[in-house]
Amino acid sequence: MAYVDHAFSITDDDLMIETSYVVNNRPPIKEIALAVSLLVFGVVGIVLGIFLASNKIGGDHAHGLFFAILGMVLFIPGFYYTRIAYYAYKGYKGFSFANIPPV
To answer: What are the transmembrane regions (predicted)?
Structure first.
């Protein structure tokens, strides 16, 4: 006869146990505010950089290029995390506020 260890077996009684738990899926306010501010400052930097580079307003071409690159560096993570927060708020499958790293 084979030895069967019943200490770790799953029975029907184990499957019927109902546990109540609360899913904490609250929006992280500081992280979303940071993402939105990065997005806004990135757009402002890109637009300002384009105007400076095309000599529409004061400055030279190098300053415009600098502001455009700085705007892109701010825009990319701002857009990425704002998009995650928006999709998590709307309840799209695969998106959660847990995907936004803490500040």
So the answer is: 32-53, 65-89
> What span, in angstroms and rounded, lies between the C-alpha atoms of 38 and 44?
10
Parse the chain into domains and list their residue ranges.
29-90
Q: How far, in Å, are 1, 17, 46, 58, 70 from residue 65 at the CA level?
A: 80, 63, 9, 13, 9
Q: Which amino acid is at 26?
A: R
- pLDDT of residue 16 exceeding 60: no
- For 31, left (φ over 0), alpha (ψ -120 to 50), or beta? alpha
pTM summary value: 0.72
